[in-house]
Design brief:
Elements: H1 2-13, E1 20-23, H2 27-39, E2 44-47, H3 49-61, H4 64-76, H5 86-99, H6 101-108, H7 111-114, H8 122-131, H9 134-158, H10 165-182, H11 187-202, H12 207-215, H13 218-227, H14 229-246, H15 250-257
Parallel strand pairs: 1-2
Helix pairs in contact: 1-2, 3-5, 3-9, 3-11, 4-8, 4-9, 5-9, 9-10, 10-12, 12-14, 13-14
Length: 258
Amino acid sequence: MLADLLEKQIDKVGKEHVVHIVTDNGANFKAAGRLLMERIPHLFWTPCAAHCLDLLLEDIGKIKEFHTCINMAQKIGDLVRPAVTRFATSFLTLASLHKNRSGLRNLVVSDEWHATSFSTTQEGRRVENIILSMPFWNKVELCLRASQPLLVALRIADGDETPAAPEIMAAMDVAKAAIKDSLQRKPDLLKEVLKYYDNRWENQMEQQLYGAALYLNPSKFFALKEKDRRQAGRLRIMFNQVMWKMVTDDEEQNKISK
């Protein structure tokens, strides 16, 4: 049983030294993680944040308006190096295309382009029409509004430079606010994006542990406290809940709380 195998590895380290385990989002790992939290009262389990974000980007990429745009972009070609995660690659490709759109437009109207045999093929004409299509570029911009804030969070979750736990909750809050702001004139599209956001992030990730980590991150917490005291209070509650789970002695709890 998967939970037994994971518990054996925890025992090798020592249960008292293990606070948090992370797995991918497979149903078997979810079941094992929840079972381990029952067996080891102080333990926290969460699905991998990077994997969660990758699946969220996959969900968003399946939205009809975005899916059509991504398929059109793939006909132009992959102009970026492979991303860390495969579903993020589609949105990074769109960002690269958007960055180079002027050059691409100049290319397909140039004599050099029309001198190539590819330009006269059905595929070449299709690529040219896509690049010269304003509706296509408008759709690219919508895709970027929905995806870029999440890609920033993904870099934090998947990076090695700094620990992700104290940063990721703030990054996801910023991402959600940015998406709401950038898609406010597309309410139906915004509703669909936020539905996937809530399903993948709000409903699947363990918020208490990340909230406690953010509460203990002075570089983020004090600025947040000045801006949003209600959220700061919510983070303090999360910290208390984590502490009560990890520390059972009342006297130690009081010392930590002070």
